Amino acid sequence: MGKAQKYVLLGDATYPLQDWILKPYQEDENLTQRQLQFNYRLKRAHSVIENAFLRLKARWQILLKCDDCSLELLPTLVLACCILHNICEAHDNPFNEEWLEGTEPTELPKPCQPAPAAMEDSRAEQVRELMCQYFESCGEG
Fold first, then answer.
1. How far apart are CA 12 and CA 107, in angstroms?
2. How many Å apart are CA 124 and CA 19, to the nearest integer?
């Protein structure tokens, strides 16, 4: 894209647009094809992330019962599960689909109202526009 980019988090419409939080364009009839494609790609990426967390929780069901451990241990426990999960995935360790039965996708609490426009970062629109250009150059998918 011609510009070095740092990592970004994916957010939904309720989060403020920041140069480190990408969120979709507000859905309305004025969106361009490029903006619609951006929203579509963001939604697809979000579903991949949700699936990864679902597999993580299914494989390491201790994460579903973290209220049993001390707060001091919790970050280490989560990190260990993530590392072990990534090792299992990288080495094609079999994933038992039955593990999913106990792990329903859960909606995490998030803001109900969109963030005020004053919280948005004007530089963030440049980042989103660069991502739009990138997605457009990649073609469909």
1. 13
2. 4
